[in-house]
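Severity: low
Component: inverse-folding endpoint
Summary: output formatting inconsistent between runs
Steps to reproduce: submit the following structure tokens with default settings.
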């Protein structure tokens, strides 16, 4: 019984780690000062932002480390990389030491790699401790990564609101303190037996409660972290935010007390008719069979065997005849080599030969990644529009709505029993706000348009970041998700380089034509034209991503529908 309580403590520890390690989201808060101190151009500043995202390319190294070291050692290796990467940058920006540009690039790369290692640790903790509710555990914890910028803004205001370099030392120290606080639950990981169906449903109710609490936390941070306050007021609000992060610790106590009560008082209280079913009995049995299956049979067709053994014939899983619904070029693209089933394992070699993967890659590259690059440029965007004082507000706005978007990625699982829609369809819906936002930003330079566009982009990209792991697992196999997802997110550093370079070229080109300000050794572009053409290009690119996601949905919806039909047939 104590094991059931400890796993919730581990979930809370994972939430803490995620909440304080999304340090790449506050880059815009100090990027202008960093640019001024180093005396670099906008293009060179973009390369530093790209270096931070480039750390994701080395995400596989965290998995390799887990093969040889305990989980807590990998956690503190990530902490050390972040401490060195951000700590030395802080010394540079404070002009205590001087480092060449190439070293600064490597420090940004190291700091970005630390974020990926933290994420890997959190994924492993969720998978080990919540095998039957993995999507809910991962989406909840990953959501808190989106509020990091808002939390750091509150912390900076509570210490010294006038110092932008403070963000770097906070990025170095706070993850270290958080890792120390999370160490005890991680070291005391319980050995868990598979839950009975009623236990899975009870866990689902607890996840619902935690998601409601998460929404309240996001609203709190949006209201009180988007404006500047005096130091005393900021400390009060920071205390409130910390309380909301600590409050879920009561969950383990409630779980343990409930188990004791049921064991001692023999209560007959049951949770019935909750209105949603996240994991049904057949899904749980399927999960148990996957866990007990010998590693030698992991490979293509393992899930097909399970589905066929549960009454689904091989013929019923073939959807190629569905291509007759479409004609012309569209019919060729939609009908060619469709996925026969969900969960079929794909090796890396097979993955890169699949059209579905490249449609997915383009949708992510032209959707979520472009939103991340927008957040990296928020400091310069606000500065060019004469709204430097609103940079903190914009960063908090993006961070908070990214958090809400990540939380929304769990909605399909909650409404699955009453309304089922392919997850690739939800991806398409999530991409819609991005082109709308960039068109709005290109059409108007007003404060309201800037705030609305930032919120829409944060909401869209947040959903994509959180839903991507589940989509990758469903389309290309749960056993291969680690490798395949790392291949997918190579689009992030690539997009950071391409989109950031495009923005930097437009920015520097307008330095000579607009109203500009000389700051230290750099020239700051002022005026709407600094980013107007960038917004137009980004809008067109995001429309391409939307079109790609529509094709992906059309190609995969039959596989989703058939899987849900089989699941519902077995359940009812």
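Observed output (run 2 of 3):
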């Amino acid at each position: 019984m104590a094991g059931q309580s400890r796993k919730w403590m581990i979930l809370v520890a994972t939430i803490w780690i995620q909440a304080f390690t999304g340090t790449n989201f506050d880059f815009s808060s100090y990027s202008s000062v960093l640019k001024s101190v180093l005396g670099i151009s906008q293009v060179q500043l973009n390369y530093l932002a790209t270096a931070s995202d480039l750390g994701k390319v080395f995400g596989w190294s965290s998995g390799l480390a887990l093969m040889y070291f305990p989980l807590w050692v990998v956690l503190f290796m990530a902490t050390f990389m972040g401490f060195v990467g951000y700590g030395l940058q802080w010394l540079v920006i404070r002009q205590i030491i001087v480092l060449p540009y190439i070293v600064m690039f490597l420090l940004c790369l190291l700091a970005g790699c630390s974020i990926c290692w933290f994420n890997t640790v959190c994924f492993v903790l969720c998978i080990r401790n919540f095998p039957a509710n993995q999507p809910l555990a991962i989406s909840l914890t990953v959501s808190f990564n989106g509020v990091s910028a808002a939390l750091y803004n509150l912390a900076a205001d509570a210490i010294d609101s006038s110092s932008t370099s403070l963000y770097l030392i906070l990025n170095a120290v706070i993850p270290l303190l958080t890792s120390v606080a999370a160490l005890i639950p991680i070291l005391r990981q319980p050995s868990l037996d598979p839950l009975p169906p009623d236990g899975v449903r009870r866990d689902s109710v607890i996840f619902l409660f935690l998601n409601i609490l998460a929404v309240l936390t996001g609203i709190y941070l949006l209201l009180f972290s988007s404006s500047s306050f005096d130091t005393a007021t900021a400390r009060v609000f920071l205390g409130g935010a910390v309380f909301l992060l600590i409050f879920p610790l009561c969950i383990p106590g409630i779980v343990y007390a409930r188990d004791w009560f049921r064991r001692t008082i023999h209560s007959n209280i049951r949770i019935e008719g909750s209105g949603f079913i996240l994991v049904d009995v057949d899904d749980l049995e399927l999960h148990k069979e996957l866990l007990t299956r010998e590693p030698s049979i992991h490979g293509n067709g393992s899930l097909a065997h399970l589905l066929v053994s549960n009454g689904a014939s091989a013929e019923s899983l073939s959807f190629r005849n569905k291509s007759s619904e479409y004609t012309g070029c569209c019919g060729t693209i939609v009908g060619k080599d469709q996925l026969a089933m969900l969960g079929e394992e794909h090796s890396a070699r097979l993955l890169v030969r699949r059209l579905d993967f490249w449609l997915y890659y383009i949708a992510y590259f032209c959707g979520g990644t472009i939103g991340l690059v927008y957040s990296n440029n928020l400091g310069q965007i606000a500065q060019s529009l004469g709204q430097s004082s609103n940079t903190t507000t914009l960063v908090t706005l993006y961070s908070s709505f990214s958090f809400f978007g990540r939380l929304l990625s769990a909605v399909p699982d909650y409404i699955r029993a009453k309304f089922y829609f392919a997850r690739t369809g939800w991806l398409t819906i999530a991409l819609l706000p991005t082109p709308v936002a960039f068109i709005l930003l290109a059409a108007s330079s007003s404060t309201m348009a800037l705030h609305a566009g930032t919120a829409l982009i944060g909401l869209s990209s947040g959903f994509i970041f959180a839903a991507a792991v589940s989509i990758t697992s469903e389309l290309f196999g749960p056993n291969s998700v680690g490798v395949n997802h790392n291949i997918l997110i190579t689009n992030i550093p690539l997009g950071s380089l391409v989109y950031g370079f495009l923005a930097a070229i437009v920015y520097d080109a307008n330095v000579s034509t607009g109203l500009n300000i000389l700051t230290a050794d750099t020239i700051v572009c002022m005026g709407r034209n600094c980013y107007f053409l960038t917004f137009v290009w980004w809008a067109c690119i995001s429309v391409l991503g939307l079109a790609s996601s529509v094709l992906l949905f059309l190609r995969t919806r039959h596989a989703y529908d058939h899987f849900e039909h089989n699941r519902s047939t077995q359940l009812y």
